[in-house]
Amino acid sequence: MEKARTLLLLLLLLLLSVLCSTASSVIDGLLPNGNFEYGPKPSQLKGSVVTSKTAIPEWEISGYVEYIKSGQKQGDMLLVVPEGAFAVRLGNDALIKQKVKVTKGGFYSITFSAARTCAQEEKLNVSIFPKSEQDNDDGILPIQTMYSSSGWDSYAWGFKADAEEVGISIHNPGVEEDPACGPLVDSVALKVLNLPKRTRDNLLKNGNFEEGPYIIPKTSWGVLIPPHIEDDHSPLPGWIVESLKAVKYVDSEHFSVPDGKRAVELVAGKESALAQVVYTKPGMLYVLTFAVGDARNSCEGPLAVEAYAGKESVRVSYTSKGKGGFIRAKLPFRAISTRTRVMFLSSIYTMTSDNSGSLCGPVIDDVKLLSVRSRKLA
Question: Given this model, what pLDDT does residue 135 score?
């Protein structure tokens, strides 16, 4: 009788673990084996090259994929892994993919870390499948520009789920003379996005930037929102990145943030712009308010943010000592149409003072838009 009870308990525990494992595919965080800590068997490796398409648990691969251990050498270069001890390298036309259970119609963001190892023009293609005909949930992410001093950057990509199970693919479309050349990839994570709405207190959506992509714990370089991101599937809900370079999503655990737990750093001068289109009433007076500061990341010297709304603009200067801090600014304007584009960009190209050559810039946060009629006067 006792043995039967023990067996029943073990079966219940096994069932519970399976259920928890299934549910974990939609909980914010790393995908199953998203950090690649579980690797191929020795018989499935030829040196560091993976020889079987299912050798890496939870993943399927194709093309020239290497399983990289932190500290492994490539010529004179030491390969460093940002989280844990292992990562993968995607060589010529290589990809990794995984299927995950999601909520059909839900919005999600993918976060992953990547590092360039060879060519200057390396890029990665993020794909979601299946997808409807009107969706274009593919993203070419250029990774030749490094924004952190560690050599690793994290990137985000947003999508709408068109099925209850979707495939996530990260592909290196490049072809080099050396097939081993290609970016390192690590820490692939998924996050459910809750789409914010406009309110009486703020006509802008997600003006405090609290809703955004998953930030991988113990990574101190934030998450890049790549260029040419539209509002429909933005990993930063409500906002459009309409520039040649990325903007950086930062958190209060690793950076100085003016308000709340999240903010955006404009890291590439006038090539790093953030925008949102809002409904307005022609002829009505509005006031745009926002905070400008530094992220406490050695971004020292003069910083400046240009804000645009309707036909009006303002340039806000901020002298940074690289230790955090911010000022508040406002831009009054009269709407000239039913749709007004609010846009922010950095007018100064800046690099961190730690001699790493990393791009940096001003932080913006707590962005609010109100009509003068509804504005609460101080």
Answer: 56
